[in-house]
Amino acid sequence: MDIASAVVVYILLWWLVFFMALPVGVQVPDESEVGKGHATSAPKRPYLGRKALAATAIAAVLWVGVFLLVEGDFYSFRNAIRNW
């Protein structure tokens, strides 16, 4: 896997994990706490920084797994395509 492919795979994994983490722990405010002009579905505290850090760590672990799968001898994608 060349460097461009590695970066693209990491970015895709990061966004996938980040979007999966967004709804975790979300609490919506009561109607009495919502100010005029604000959406009632907006979360009280979205914790975007924590979720971004968690997505970074999880995507790194997943990336290592993808890298080992592509570069290792566990399964040959090239032979599978030739035999298909």
Structure description:
By secondary structure, the chain is mainly α. It has one domain. Helices cover 60% and strands 0% of the residues. The chain is built from three helices and no strands. Helix 1 crosses helix 2 (48-71). The longest helix is centred in the last third of the chain and has 24 residues, at 48-71. The mean pLDDT is 89.
Query: Helical residue percent?
Result: 55-70%
Show unreliable segments.
none
Molecular shape: elongated
Tally of distinct domains: 1
Topology, number of strands: 0
Percent strand equals under 5%
* Distance between the first and last residues' Cα: 22 Å
Q: Report the biggest beta sheet as strand number plus sense, adding barrel if it closes.
A: none
The run of helices and strands is HHH
Which key phrases capture this entry?
3 helices; mainly alpha; elongated; 84 residues; 60% helix
Quick rundown:
With 84 residues, the chain is mainly α. It contains 3 helices and no strands.
Secondary structure layout plus pairing:
Layout: H1 3-21, H2 48-71, H3 77-83
Helix pairs in contact: 1-2
